[in-house]
Amino acid sequence: MPAIQTAQQILDQVFLDTRAKLLEVAASLDRLDRATGAELAKDDPRRLRLQKTLDILASSATNRAEQLQLLFSDTYDEKWQRPAPRA
Amino acid sequence: MYYIDPHIHMVSRTTDDYERMARMGCVAMSEPAFWAGFDRGSVDSFRDYFRQLTEFEPKRAAAVGIQHYTWLCINAKEAENVSLSREVIAMIPEFLDKPNVLGIGEIGLNKNTKNEAQIFWEHMELALKTDELILIHTPHLADKYKGTRMIVDMLLDDPRIKPERVLIDHVEEHTVKVARDHGFWCAMTLYPVTKCTPSRAVDIIEMVGDEKIMVNSAGDWGPSNPTAVPDLVQEMRRRGYSEAKIKKIVYDNPLEFFRQSKRFKFREPA
To answer: How close does chain B come to A29, measured CA to CA in Å?
Structure first.
Protein backbone atom coordinates (compact mmCIF):
# COMPACT_ATOMS: atom_id res chain seq x y z
CA MET A 1 0.00 0.00 0.00
CA PRO A 2 1.97 3.02 -1.14
CA ALA A 3 2.38 5.86 1.32
CA ILE A 4 0.32 8.90 0.39
CA GLN A 5 2.30 11.60 2.12
CA THR A 6 5.45 13.23 0.76
CA ALA A 7 8.61 13.34 2.85
CA GLN A 8 7.99 17.03 3.47
CA GLN A 9 4.49 16.37 4.78
CA ILE A 10 5.79 13.63 7.07
CA LEU A 11 8.55 15.87 8.38
CA ASP A 12 6.05 18.65 9.08
CA GLN A 13 3.88 16.22 11.05
CA VAL A 14 6.47 14.21 12.98
CA PHE A 15 9.22 16.73 13.68
CA LEU A 16 8.11 17.94 17.10
CA ASP A 17 7.04 14.51 18.31
CA THR A 18 10.30 12.88 17.16
CA ARG A 19 12.28 15.72 18.71
CA ALA A 20 10.54 15.06 22.03
CA LYS A 21 11.25 11.33 21.86
CA LEU A 22 14.92 11.88 20.99
CA LEU A 23 15.22 14.31 23.89
CA GLU A 24 13.86 11.60 26.16
CA VAL A 25 16.53 9.19 24.87
CA ALA A 26 19.26 11.80 25.33
CA ALA A 27 18.07 12.60 28.85
CA SER A 28 17.98 8.89 29.77
CA LEU A 29 21.56 8.40 28.57
CA ASP A 30 22.70 11.52 30.43
CA ARG A 31 20.98 10.25 33.58
CA LEU A 32 22.79 6.92 33.23
CA ASP A 33 26.14 8.60 32.76
CA ARG A 34 25.63 10.94 35.73
CA ALA A 35 24.72 8.14 38.09
CA THR A 36 27.04 6.35 40.53
CA GLY A 37 28.55 3.31 38.86
CA ALA A 38 28.26 4.75 35.37
CA GLU A 39 31.67 3.41 34.34
CA LEU A 40 30.66 -0.15 35.29
CA ALA A 41 27.27 0.23 33.63
CA LYS A 42 29.00 1.04 30.35
CA ASP A 43 29.81 -2.69 30.01
CA ASP A 44 26.26 -3.83 30.80
CA PRO A 45 24.99 -5.69 27.70
CA ARG A 46 21.84 -3.56 27.76
CA ARG A 47 23.92 -0.38 27.73
CA LEU A 48 25.96 -1.73 24.83
CA ARG A 49 22.76 -2.53 22.95
CA LEU A 50 21.45 0.96 23.52
CA GLN A 51 24.71 2.32 22.10
CA LYS A 52 24.36 0.04 19.06
CA THR A 53 20.86 1.38 18.43
CA LEU A 54 22.36 4.84 18.03
CA ASP A 55 24.57 3.48 15.23
CA ILE A 56 21.50 2.02 13.54
CA LEU A 57 19.58 5.26 13.90
CA ALA A 58 22.49 7.20 12.44
CA SER A 59 22.68 4.92 9.39
CA SER A 60 20.89 5.50 6.10
CA ALA A 61 19.07 2.13 6.24
CA THR A 62 15.34 2.23 5.53
CA ASN A 63 14.51 -0.55 7.97
CA ARG A 64 15.89 0.89 11.15
CA ALA A 65 12.85 -0.13 13.21
CA GLU A 66 13.20 -3.75 12.07
CA GLN A 67 16.94 -3.70 12.82
CA LEU A 68 16.30 -2.34 16.31
CA GLN A 69 13.71 -5.05 16.94
CA LEU A 70 16.17 -7.76 15.91
CA LEU A 71 18.96 -6.19 17.99
CA PHE A 72 16.70 -6.54 21.04
CA SER A 73 15.58 -10.09 20.18
CA ASP A 74 16.76 -13.47 21.39
CA THR A 75 18.50 -15.64 18.81
CA TYR A 76 16.44 -18.18 16.91
CA ASP A 77 17.87 -21.66 16.26
CA GLU A 78 16.22 -23.45 13.33
CA LYS A 79 17.26 -26.80 14.81
CA TRP A 80 15.16 -26.35 17.99
CA GLN A 81 13.50 -29.56 19.19
CA ARG A 82 9.87 -29.83 18.04
CA PRO A 83 7.17 -31.28 20.34
CA ALA A 84 6.52 -35.01 20.10
CA PRO A 85 3.10 -36.62 19.69
CA ARG A 86 1.67 -37.99 22.93
CA ALA A 87 2.08 -41.73 23.42
CA MET B 1 -16.89 4.82 11.29
CA TYR B 2 -17.90 1.38 12.51
CA TYR B 3 -15.04 -0.81 13.62
CA ILE B 4 -14.31 -4.22 15.09
CA ASP B 5 -11.76 -4.88 17.81
CA PRO B 6 -10.61 -8.42 17.05
CA HIS B 7 -8.63 -8.86 20.29
CA ILE B 8 -9.63 -7.39 23.63
CA HIS B 9 -10.01 -8.86 27.11
CA MET B 10 -13.27 -7.44 28.34
CA VAL B 11 -13.38 -9.67 31.43
CA SER B 12 -10.76 -7.27 32.80
CA ARG B 13 -12.51 -4.05 31.75
CA THR B 14 -15.40 -2.20 33.34
CA THR B 15 -18.76 -1.65 31.72
CA ASP B 16 -17.73 1.98 31.20
CA ASP B 17 -15.27 0.71 28.59
CA TYR B 18 -18.05 -1.04 26.70
CA GLU B 19 -19.94 2.27 26.69
CA ARG B 20 -16.90 4.21 25.43
CA MET B 21 -16.16 1.68 22.72
CA ALA B 22 -19.77 1.70 21.52
CA ARG B 23 -19.72 5.50 21.34
CA MET B 24 -16.49 5.39 19.31
CA GLY B 25 -18.14 3.08 16.77
CA CYS B 26 -17.28 -0.43 17.93
CA VAL B 27 -19.92 -2.85 16.67
CA ALA B 28 -18.18 -6.15 17.38
CA MET B 29 -15.24 -7.55 19.30
CA SER B 30 -13.52 -10.84 19.79
CA GLU B 31 -12.11 -11.85 23.15
CA PRO B 32 -9.48 -14.60 23.31
CA ALA B 33 -9.00 -16.61 26.49
CA PHE B 34 -5.94 -15.25 28.32
CA TRP B 35 -3.87 -15.15 31.50
CA ALA B 36 -5.80 -13.55 34.36
CA GLY B 37 -2.71 -12.08 35.97
CA PHE B 38 -2.27 -15.09 38.25
CA ASP B 39 -2.02 -18.83 37.57
CA ARG B 40 -5.38 -20.53 37.90
CA GLY B 41 -5.50 -23.55 40.17
CA SER B 42 -7.80 -26.04 38.48
CA VAL B 43 -9.71 -26.98 35.39
CA ASP B 44 -12.90 -25.85 37.12
CA SER B 45 -11.63 -22.29 37.32
CA PHE B 46 -11.15 -22.43 33.55
CA ARG B 47 -14.65 -23.85 33.18
CA ASP B 48 -16.05 -20.85 35.07
CA TYR B 49 -13.90 -18.51 32.98
CA PHE B 50 -15.23 -20.03 29.76
CA ARG B 51 -18.76 -19.57 31.10
CA GLN B 52 -17.96 -15.92 31.64
CA LEU B 53 -16.67 -15.63 28.07
CA THR B 54 -19.61 -17.42 26.48
CA GLU B 55 -22.49 -16.27 28.72
CA PHE B 56 -21.79 -13.10 30.68
CA GLU B 57 -19.59 -10.98 28.39
CA PRO B 58 -21.94 -11.32 25.39
CA LYS B 59 -24.74 -9.92 27.57
CA ARG B 60 -22.63 -7.01 28.78
CA ALA B 61 -21.66 -6.25 25.19
CA ALA B 62 -25.20 -6.57 23.85
CA ALA B 63 -26.44 -4.01 26.39
CA VAL B 64 -24.53 -1.35 24.41
CA GLY B 65 -25.15 -2.86 20.99
CA ILE B 66 -21.79 -4.63 20.57
CA GLN B 67 -21.63 -8.19 19.25
CA HIS B 68 -19.21 -10.27 21.35
CA TYR B 69 -17.28 -13.31 20.15
CA THR B 70 -14.70 -15.39 21.94
CA TRP B 71 -11.91 -17.97 21.66
CA LEU B 72 -11.00 -20.78 24.03
CA CYS B 73 -7.71 -22.23 25.22
CA ILE B 74 -5.28 -22.33 28.11
CA ASN B 75 -2.92 -19.42 27.51
CA ALA B 76 0.80 -19.70 26.87
CA LYS B 77 1.83 -18.57 30.35
CA GLU B 78 -0.17 -21.26 32.11
CA ALA B 79 0.79 -23.83 29.47
CA GLU B 80 3.95 -24.44 31.49
CA ASN B 81 1.68 -26.56 33.72
CA VAL B 82 1.31 -29.48 31.33
CA SER B 83 -1.09 -31.61 33.37
CA LEU B 84 -3.51 -28.72 33.98
CA SER B 85 -3.21 -27.73 30.32
CA ARG B 86 -4.24 -31.18 29.20
CA GLU B 87 -7.25 -31.13 31.50
CA VAL B 88 -8.31 -27.77 30.03
CA ILE B 89 -7.80 -28.92 26.45
CA ALA B 90 -9.96 -31.97 27.20
CA MET B 91 -12.66 -29.68 28.64
CA ILE B 92 -12.75 -27.13 25.78
CA PRO B 93 -15.13 -29.22 23.59
CA GLU B 94 -17.86 -28.66 26.23
CA PHE B 95 -17.96 -25.05 25.00
CA LEU B 96 -17.20 -25.32 21.30
CA ASP B 97 -20.86 -25.25 20.32
CA LYS B 98 -21.57 -21.97 22.10
CA PRO B 99 -22.79 -19.48 19.50
CA ASN B 100 -20.13 -16.83 20.10
CA VAL B 101 -17.10 -19.15 19.97
CA LEU B 102 -14.92 -18.48 16.93
CA GLY B 103 -12.19 -21.04 17.54
CA ILE B 104 -9.10 -21.90 19.57
CA GLY B 105 -7.05 -19.02 20.96
CA GLU B 106 -5.04 -17.22 22.00
CA ILE B 107 -2.62 -20.11 21.99
CA GLY B 108 1.08 -19.47 21.56
CA LEU B 109 4.39 -19.17 23.35
CA ASN B 110 5.48 -16.99 26.24
CA LYS B 111 9.10 -17.78 27.15
CA ASN B 112 9.50 -20.29 24.29
CA THR B 113 9.88 -23.31 26.55
CA LYS B 114 9.53 -26.98 25.65
CA ASN B 115 6.29 -27.32 27.68
CA GLU B 116 4.73 -24.28 26.03
CA ALA B 117 5.57 -25.67 22.59
CA GLN B 118 4.10 -29.06 23.51
CA ILE B 119 0.80 -27.55 24.68
CA PHE B 120 0.67 -25.24 21.66
CA TRP B 121 0.98 -28.29 19.48
CA GLU B 122 -1.76 -30.16 21.41
CA HIS B 123 -4.10 -27.18 20.99
CA MET B 124 -3.36 -27.31 17.26
CA GLU B 125 -4.38 -30.97 17.25
CA LEU B 126 -7.71 -30.10 18.89
CA ALA B 127 -8.33 -27.26 16.44
CA LEU B 128 -7.66 -29.53 13.49
CA LYS B 129 -9.89 -32.28 14.88
CA THR B 130 -12.86 -29.91 15.11
CA ASP B 131 -11.91 -27.70 12.13
CA GLU B 132 -11.57 -24.49 14.17
CA LEU B 133 -10.00 -21.17 13.36
CA ILE B 134 -6.78 -20.56 15.32
CA LEU B 135 -5.69 -17.30 16.97
CA ILE B 136 -2.06 -17.16 18.03
CA HIS B 137 -0.31 -15.05 20.66
CA THR B 138 3.33 -14.30 19.87
CA PRO B 139 5.64 -13.54 22.81
CA HIS B 140 6.59 -10.13 24.10
CA LEU B 141 9.76 -8.14 23.57
CA ALA B 142 13.01 -10.13 23.31
CA ASP B 143 11.14 -13.44 23.02
CA LYS B 144 8.97 -12.37 20.10
CA TYR B 145 11.17 -13.08 17.08
CA LYS B 146 12.36 -16.50 18.25
CA GLY B 147 8.86 -17.46 19.44
CA THR B 148 7.21 -16.40 16.20
CA ARG B 149 9.72 -18.44 14.17
CA MET B 150 9.09 -21.47 16.39
CA ILE B 151 5.32 -21.08 16.06
CA VAL B 152 5.51 -20.80 12.28
CA ASP B 153 7.79 -23.86 12.21
CA MET B 154 5.15 -25.90 14.08
CA LEU B 155 2.38 -24.66 11.80
CA LEU B 156 4.34 -25.44 8.64
CA ASP B 157 5.33 -28.87 9.96
CA ASP B 158 1.66 -29.91 9.73
CA PRO B 159 0.28 -30.10 6.17
CA ARG B 160 -3.29 -30.12 7.52
CA ILE B 161 -2.96 -26.50 8.64
CA LYS B 162 -4.61 -24.04 6.24
CA PRO B 163 -2.75 -20.73 6.60
CA GLU B 164 -5.82 -18.67 5.73
CA ARG B 165 -7.54 -20.06 8.88
CA VAL B 166 -4.73 -18.96 11.20
CA LEU B 167 -4.26 -15.47 12.67
CA ILE B 168 -0.82 -14.66 14.08
CA ASP B 169 -1.24 -11.78 16.50
CA HIS B 170 0.99 -9.11 18.00
CA VAL B 171 3.23 -8.94 14.93
CA GLU B 172 5.73 -6.09 14.66
CA GLU B 173 8.35 -4.89 12.21
CA HIS B 174 10.57 -7.96 12.55
CA THR B 175 7.86 -10.62 12.58
CA VAL B 176 5.18 -9.42 10.18
CA LYS B 177 6.86 -10.95 7.14
CA VAL B 178 7.54 -14.19 9.04
CA ALA B 179 3.74 -14.53 9.26
CA ARG B 180 2.73 -13.16 5.87
CA ASP B 181 5.33 -14.89 3.74
CA HIS B 182 3.62 -18.18 4.59
CA GLY B 183 0.07 -17.00 3.94
CA PHE B 184 -1.10 -16.51 7.51
CA TRP B 185 -3.33 -13.66 8.60
CA CYS B 186 -1.69 -11.28 11.02
CA ALA B 187 -2.64 -8.56 13.46
CA MET B 188 -0.83 -5.70 15.15
CA THR B 189 -1.59 -4.81 18.74
CA LEU B 190 -1.75 -1.16 19.74
CA TYR B 191 -0.55 -1.53 23.31
CA PRO B 192 1.77 0.83 25.19
CA VAL B 193 5.45 0.07 25.68
CA THR B 194 5.53 -3.67 24.99
CA LYS B 195 3.89 -3.68 21.58
CA CYS B 196 3.02 -1.33 18.70
CA THR B 197 1.80 2.24 18.25
CA PRO B 198 -0.82 3.40 15.74
CA SER B 199 1.79 5.22 13.68
CA ARG B 200 4.12 2.20 13.51
CA ALA B 201 1.15 -0.02 12.65
CA VAL B 202 0.22 2.22 9.72
CA ASP B 203 3.88 2.21 8.63
CA ILE B 204 3.81 -1.60 8.62
CA ILE B 205 0.60 -1.64 6.56
CA GLU B 206 2.20 0.75 4.07
CA MET B 207 5.18 -1.60 3.76
CA VAL B 208 3.39 -4.96 3.52
CA GLY B 209 -0.04 -4.04 2.12
CA ASP B 210 -3.58 -4.16 3.48
CA GLU B 211 -4.55 -7.74 2.71
CA LYS B 212 -4.96 -10.27 5.53
CA ILE B 213 -3.96 -7.79 8.22
CA MET B 214 -5.85 -6.17 11.07
CA VAL B 215 -5.27 -4.20 14.29
CA ASN B 216 -6.49 -4.54 17.86
CA SER B 217 -6.16 -3.00 21.29
CA ALA B 218 -5.65 -6.19 23.35
CA GLY B 219 -7.03 -4.07 26.20
CA ASP B 220 -6.58 -5.96 29.45
CA TRP B 221 -5.90 -5.47 33.17
CA GLY B 222 -2.58 -3.71 32.44
CA PRO B 223 -2.24 -0.07 31.35
CA SER B 224 -3.93 -0.25 27.96
CA ASN B 225 -6.37 1.65 25.80
CA PRO B 226 -9.61 -0.05 24.75
CA THR B 227 -10.16 2.63 22.13
CA ALA B 228 -6.77 2.16 20.46
CA VAL B 229 -8.36 1.07 17.18
CA PRO B 230 -10.06 4.48 16.74
CA ASP B 231 -6.60 5.99 17.38
CA LEU B 232 -5.37 4.10 14.32
CA VAL B 233 -8.38 5.34 12.35
CA GLN B 234 -7.32 8.89 13.23
CA GLU B 235 -3.70 8.24 12.25
CA MET B 236 -4.76 6.91 8.85
CA ARG B 237 -7.04 9.92 8.33
CA ARG B 238 -4.17 12.21 9.32
CA ARG B 239 -2.07 10.65 6.58
CA GLY B 240 -4.82 11.17 4.02
CA TYR B 241 -6.18 7.65 3.54
CA SER B 242 -9.74 7.27 2.27
CA GLU B 243 -12.52 6.03 4.54
CA ALA B 244 -12.72 2.89 2.35
CA LYS B 245 -9.01 2.09 2.92
CA ILE B 246 -9.39 2.60 6.67
CA LYS B 247 -12.58 0.53 6.82
CA LYS B 248 -10.76 -2.35 5.15
CA ILE B 249 -8.31 -2.58 8.06
CA VAL B 250 -10.70 -2.03 10.98
CA TYR B 251 -13.90 -3.64 9.69
CA ASP B 252 -13.75 -5.60 6.42
CA ASN B 253 -10.61 -7.62 7.17
CA PRO B 254 -11.71 -8.87 10.62
CA LEU B 255 -15.07 -9.87 9.14
CA GLU B 256 -13.40 -11.70 6.27
CA PHE B 257 -11.34 -13.75 8.71
CA PHE B 258 -14.16 -14.43 11.19
CA ARG B 259 -16.63 -15.46 8.47
CA GLN B 260 -14.59 -18.62 8.06
CA SER B 261 -15.87 -19.82 11.44
CA LYS B 262 -18.90 -22.06 11.09
CA ARG B 263 -20.52 -20.44 14.13
CA PHE B 264 -19.98 -16.81 13.15
CA LYS B 265 -23.23 -14.93 12.73
CA PHE B 266 -22.90 -11.19 12.34
CA ARG B 267 -25.65 -8.58 12.11
CA GLU B 268 -24.54 -5.69 9.93
CA PRO B 269 -25.25 -2.38 11.66
CA ALA B 270 -28.19 -0.55 10.13
So the answer is: 18
Our CA-based measurement puts residue A45 at a distance from the nearest CA of chain B, in whole angstroms, of: 14
Contact yes or no for B173 and A78 at CB 8 A: no
What stretches of B100-189 show up as alpha helix (H) in DSSP? 114-129, 144-157, 176-180
Number of domains in chain B: 1
Residue from the list B122, B150, B174 with its beta carbon closest to the beta carbon of A66: B174
Q: What is the DSSP letter of B20?
A: H
Give the tens place of pLDDT for each residue, B203-239.
Answer: 999 999 999 999 999 999 999 999 999 999 999 999 9
Tens of pLDDT along chain A (87 residues) come to 888 999 999 999 999 999 999 999 999 999 999 999 998 888 999 999 999 999 999 999 999 999 999 999 999 999 999 998 766
Residue A8: how many other CB atoms lie within 10 Å: 8
| Mutation choice for A interface testing from B114, B173, B214, B243 by most A CBs within 10 A | B173
Rounded CA gap, B157 and B99, in Å?
A: 31
Check: CB of residue B227 under 8 Å from CB of residue B192. no
Is the separation of the CB atoms in B75 and B137 below 8 Å?
yes
The residue ranges of every structural domain in chain A are: 8-71
Q: How far away is chain B from the Cα of A8, in angstroms, using its nearest Cα?
A: 12
Q: What is the CATH number of the domain that holds B185?
A: 3.20.20.140
Task: For the full predicted model, state whether its pTM sits above 0.90.
Answer: yes
Domain that holds residue B34: 3-258
pLDDT at B103 over 90: yes
